[in-house]
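Quick one, T. Sequence first:
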Amino acid sequence: MPEYSFNFDIPIYLLANRYFGMPSEYGQKIGVHQGESEMSRLAARTRRLTKLLLVGTSLAWAPVTLAQQTDQLDETDRPDQIENFEIVVTANKRAESIQDVPISVVAVSPAAIDQAGITSTSELPQLVPGLTFNPAGEAKLNSFNIRGVGTYALTATLESSVGVAVDGVPLARVGGSITDMVDVERVEVLKGPQGMLFGKNATAGLISIVNRRPDIGATTGALNVEYGSYNELNIDGVVNVAIGDTAALRVAAWKYGHDGFIRGPDGADYSQKNTYGIRTSLAFEPSDAVSITLIGQYDGRDERANANTHRLFTSTTPFGIIVENWARARGITPGPRNEQGEFFATPFSRANNYYVTGLIDAELGSGYTLSSATSYRSVSVEGQMDPFVTSSPLLHLTRLQDREEYDQFTQELRIASPSDRPLSFVAGLFYYQFEVKDVQDQNFFGLVQPGISNFYRVNTVTDKLRNIAAFGELTYRLTPGFRIIGGVRVSNDRTSATFDRARVGTDTGIIPGNVPIFSYVTRPVSYDAVSYRFGAQYDVAPDIMLYATASRGYKGPGFNLTQSSTPAAIINDARVAPEIAKSYEIGIKSQFFDRRLTINLTAFDSTFDDFQTTVGLPTNPPTFVIQNAGQLKSTGVELEINARPADGLSLGLNGAYIDARYTDFDNAACYFNQPTRPAGTPLTPGLCVGGVQTLNGWPLAVSPKWSFNASARYETPVSEDFSAFINATYSWRSSVVYEARRDPLEVQDGYGFANLNLGFKTADGNISVALYVRNLFEEHFVSRVRQEFGVYYQAPSYEARRRVGLQVSSRF
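Structure tokens:
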């Protein structure tokens, strides 16, 4: 077998600076020119994308050159022991090879999920560069970012920017989609606007979870058990039972959990995990042309939730010093590694999620397929957090509980033509109904007068949304190797919302004027939208495809109704206009050496106009509301390399450079103790003027500029009955600031951590035993840093701990 070596001698940051002048300063501004014509902007964007792609191409130069040399070898010189394989995805609502899809998509296999020790969707960033998860004190506020862009105003009346779909059904809110991944067929992460085909909540991208369907004619099962540090015990099992020759039943059940690692003031451990669920699927084929699958699932959680710890004291009066003195009296020393939690309102997280889905596929003849997806989901999420981070008798949160319940119904009907004809298409109709009720119990003690004032109130926010849409995308093959793509989705949203604040019990002391009792009912809003995607594909060679696309998506309208709403903050009927995303993307998907080496490159340039976020109104003091701001941009390169250079050896490298910045945001909130200038002074980046600041040119929050994941696995027979394997992964992210206000004390430095699996399995693969180590070198980092009363607190991360354990898997 000939040996191949790949040598990357040029540092990527030098290439980036050389090709398109990447700024060396993290906060350097991007120039925004006034009066540019549309053609000049398009030309400039094309030049930027071409330069970005050149950066990635330089990394792939050596393998491509080597491939050209290898093509000259005799067939007898080619290694033929390695099986070729193809990854199939449904990113375009039809089964296609991932190498043929003109979208930047990462497909995560069940094997990759198991080897990385991932159990939840919140852990997917370990395997997908450019994807980040943003945990919050309440489950309903959790969110994802793709390509640096996420949701910047979290409320029940607004949609998320990154969508999550399960078995093709888009989920209404991210809070109900942070779930365990059990018996999945694959997870697809689609980057860039995906609303043209997937409809809702996908202006930045989409996470698509595809569960395994029942296997008709087979009776099989599997059991997986994992036990390790912090009493981490993960158990899941699946049984597939054949029912005659035309039907099958599949049942998957699981329970995952680990002890907490943050010691609370009550002596209990917090930041634990305790999740569970069961999914039942029934598939039957009444004829050769019809396939029906019915899916029902329940999953839930009941946990002592994330407890925050003190990171930094600033001796701020009047409230910060109370928090500080009480903590020091209890022996707490603030710092990045502090694991002593502080709270009065006990953190907890509970959820119950029910859904049923019906999928029908009918062959109409001549290769046409009619598909229907009907789904109903009911989600209840309840939790409590304590942003005051103190149990002081003078100042604390007695109660801050939030209960969000929502129901959604979706129906999609679509038809797909054969894909092997000159003209192929997918078209369909979509209906979506969503209702949510968010209730928060608030009882603050000691605010405004420490040790005296008390006020207890209940805030209720409701929202109703109906969406109908028609969509279609066609591909026309002009020549055997050249195809053009065009797709349009026409949608109508109709939404309305209400707010009510009711006082409960007897209040004492001074009641702040910024929490008046009032109710508000919005007028219904109707919005018509057009999403599209146009582009072209060209097959340079049988296994090399170039593509370019332009797409438009939108995030629907909403309302500025939050748990802290006041009458003064309700402007223009509390309406928040839609957010519009436009993205331009070029890429190459290529395979060499009989498809044993895959190199995919993508360059993109996206803009988000009227993005929905929290802004400061020009009042004294400023009033902060959810409105539309100006514009933000995300530009970058994504690289994926997968190689199987020898029998049993597989290597992978995924990387992303993302430059995501605000380009028009002049009324952002200031951070604590930010340098100020007198009111009326022109806005200058880094300075607070009249209670607001400009973020123009600054990077987005929770957006690492550089990220990559690397993996290596080697498996070899050690006898006729057994083989041994070793698997290693490494995930790295550059530094981020956790809040949009860009407080330099709310920064997480760059970090990376390694995971290792070492074990053996039987030759038939039915039994596997492995020792694992997560975060092998015990790299430290936290999930979040925030400030309240001049006290900085943090959310320590479970993944920042070294964990050792044993995995046992069996199949029958």
